[in-house]
Amino acid sequence: MSIFGSVGFESAYAMGTQGGQQGGAGLLTLLPWLLIIVVFYLLLIRPQQKRQKEHRTMLGNLRKGDKVVTNSGMFGTIVGFNEKENVVVLKVADEVKIEFLKSSIAGRVEKAE
Question: How many alpha carbons fall within 13 Å on the CB side of residue 29?
């Protein structure tokens, strides 16, 4: 038998006997992945959920006369609602009224008095 053949068997035997001793290492290999998931949730998912909740609240509190800006950057004053179709009617200039989906309102510029 050659020297390379005997070295291969010895290393295989050594690896086989040590394999049973690493039973608790499975949890340690998962720990970095769990930490990444927790950090991902805290830094990305949770703040986005908070912004969505604030946006829904803002949309629910819109009233006639509020000055708003749309996602496309158009400014206007709310002059009407169509709750059935979830539409807001904005006056953007004299005698110019445009319908927008309520969800396309980005934010309130000025609150009605």
Answer: 5
- Range 38-45 average pLDDT: 93
What is the C-alpha separation between 113 and 4, in angstroms, rounded?
A: 90
Instruction: Give yes or no: residues 57 and 67 share one domain.
Output: no
Whether 5 maps to a domain, the answer reads no
Domain count for the chain: 2
Give the three-class secondary structure for 64: coil
Convert the pLDDT of each residue in 11-28 to its tens digit: 555 555 555 555 567 788
CB half-sphere exposure, 4, CA atoms < 13 A: 0
| Shared-domain flag, residues 57 and 70 | no
Residue 92: which domain range?
63-110
Query: What is the per-residue pLDDT for 28?
Result: 85
Q: What are the pLDDT digits (tens) for 68-83? A: 999 999 999 999 999 8
* 90 contacts 76 by C-beta, under 8 angstroms: yes
Q: Which of 71, 99, 68 is nearest to 85 (CA)?
A: 99
